[in-house]
Amino acid sequence: MGATSPAPFSDIGKQAKDLLTRDYHFDHRFTLTMLSDVGMGIIATCVKRDRLFVRNISTQYKSGSTTVDLKVDIHSNVSTTVVVREIFPCTKATLSFKIPDHKSGKLDMQYLPSSSCSHYIMHWIDSNSVSRRFSSYWNQGV
């Protein structure tokens, strides 16, 4: 993506928020990270909040312009995110869904040329109806 293109609306203020809140935890945390040379990584996390242990396992695979994230929590919920960059020039497609929640599917496609930004999101409500939202932001030479 070009350095002159505007940031998506969801990324506005993210760097400032991360600066103030990222990596600050007051809970007991244990993280085991295993990385490989072929682009695969496995992270096991355990957090103790009050007297409850919350555990999850996540894995990430990167190959070329594709990234696949898979996360399993203590309740056997599986969250999956697939990001493909540059399907077409200046595009990014993200597919995310959770198992067993069949209504959680989301397809997010972004087109970011140097002078404008378009964002298209599809949410699966059920197998028969699809809710669509289209929003555009056009840079007016700012």
UniProtKB/TrEMBL annotation:
GO terms for molecular function: voltage-gated monoatomic anion channel activity. Gene3D superfamilies: Porin. The lineage of its organism: Eukaryota, Viridiplantae, Streptophyta, Embryophyta, Tracheophyta. InterPro entries: Porin_dom_sf, Porin_Euk, Porin_Euk/Tom40. This is Uncharacterized protein. Belongs to the eukaryotic mitochondrial porin (TC 1.B.8.1) family. Pfam families: Porin_3. One of its GO terms (cellular component) is mitochondrial outer membrane.
